[in-house]
Amino acid sequence: MLNRFVVLVLSSVAFAQQPAPAPRHDISGTWEPVNGRGDGVQAGGVKAMPNDGKPEHELPYTPHGLEVYKSHKALEGKDAVLPAFYNDPRNFCEPIGFPRADHYNLRQTQILQNEFKVVILYEYAQTWRVIWTDGRELPKEIPEQRFYGYSVGKWVDDTTLVVQTIGMMPEDRVWLDSTGRPISDALRVEERWHRVNHDRLELSVTIDDPKMYTRPWVSMDKFPMKLQDPHTDVPEMYCSPSELEKYNKLFGNTASGIEGKQ
Amino acid sequence: MKTVIFSLIVSLPLIAHHGNAAFDVGKEITLKGTVTDWFWANPHCILQFDVKGADGQPAEHWVTETSNPPDMIATGWTKMSFKPGDQVIVTAQPVKSGKPVGRLLQVVLPNGKALSTFGGAKGPAARAAASGAGPAEAKVEEVIPAR
Q1: pLDDT in tens, A198-241
Q2: What would the pLDDT profile of A40-99 be if each residue is shown by its tens digit?
Q3: Which of A32, A133, A224, B6 has minimal CB crowding within 10 Å?
Q4: Using CA of residue B83, residue B87, residue B93, residue B98, what is the dihedral sign?
Q5: What's the start-to-end Cα distance of chain B, in Å?
Q6: Rounded to a whole number, what is the distance in Å from the CA of B115 to chain A's nearest CA?
Q7: Coil, strand, or helix at residue A249?
Q8: In this prediction, does ipTM exceed 0.85?
Q9: For residue B118, which residues of chain A lie inside 8 Å, CB to CB?
Q10: Contact B46/A247, CB-based, under 8 Å?
Q11: Which of the 8 DSSP states describes residue A213?
């Protein structure tokens, strides 16, 4: 009798700890990486394919893609340069762009939605983008290239929103990640936002850019995020040219042994 | 007196605005100093301080970076953590060039409270400083064993 009671109590506790099911067609909320805020920084390259020199993480560059990659002077990854010798557009406070918004400093992420659109508010650089869910198709011709492209989302089941994005800026305006991997204006990105249950969201990203890569590849594979208290006040994380200049003058240039460079 | 312990290199978490290329990864230096400026800003907050020489006069001006404000707030730091004139014990990862700049790993405030960033400091001198026991010297260099 006692054993049955214990089993019943333990079962009740286990049941009580189960997250509620995912709501239908709803990924709204404030989300943070399950494995801590550092997990979304991806400083060493995209989560599923870090730029660490391991053969299994080598990207399928086209000759042009490899040439563009080599022209990028990144501060991270296996080919990193010293702090004063970068040409990363991030370090000039250029818009971080897409898909780098998913691939760099993916921290506390606020998602708002209504019947027409899903809006993602990224913590880094106070950036937002709109994903249309009103049934429209992607534009047949791009009116003008954008840092964050044109995004259309469709619910493929009750809990998975698949987003296609095209029309991004050409190479050198936006990098794929912080290690200088390139993208072009031929890029098409597929994001799968899957709400596993009420408290967990997973993001997968596939890169398809025939100018830069010989085949599509996965940059994020079910990257886990957990739901935050709705009252969470997300801090500012901006890029200020004047603060960056002071940082470089005080620290970056001296660390690189070139004091005096502005 | 300098204490030097040789060992393998260890990596810090990749959460910085830049990579590890400039840093003497695996080395720590613990310094007693007087704060001259605390710059609370992106992409990284910067603590500057003077270290006195044997004659009691400022001999070396150090510039140490921490992380960005959101990360600092999350680990207990604030814009008001320091003011000029504060006496602090800083443990930093220096740069390879030998210049007095580095990545701040731990600081002990005048009230004895220790704050950390970039995963914190690992060496005996830093632990002694955090416990209030030292270090006795104004400047201690260490190479930290890999874990």
Answers
A1: 999 999 999 999 999 999 999 999 999 999 999 999 999 999 99
A2: 999 999 999 999 999 999 999 999 999 999 999 999 999 998 867 889 999 889 999 999
A3: B6
A4: positive
A5: 26
A6: 18
A7: helix
A8: no
A9: none
A10: yes
A11: B
pLDDT lower than 70: segments of chain B: 1-19, 136, 145-147
- Helix, strand, coil fractions of chain B, as percent rounded to 5: 10, 35, 55
First to last CA, chain A: 78
Average pLDDT over residues A163-183: 94
A133-156: average pLDDT: 96
Q: Cα separation of A88 and A64, whole Å?
A: 19
For residue A141, the 8-state DSSP code is S
Locate A93 and state its tokens.
């406070």
Which residues have C-beta within 8 Å of that of residue A257, sequence separation ≥ 6?
A: A82, B97, B99
Q: Which amino acid is at A158?
A: D
Q: Which residues make beta-bridge pairs with A152? A: A132, A164
Q: Give the angle subtended at the CA of A149 by the CAs of A131 and A244, to the nearest 5°.
A: 105
Non-local CB neighbours of A10 within 8 Å, separated by 6+ positions? none
Phi, psi of A151 (to 5 degrees): -125, 135
Nearest CA-CA partner of B71 in B36, B42, B94: B42
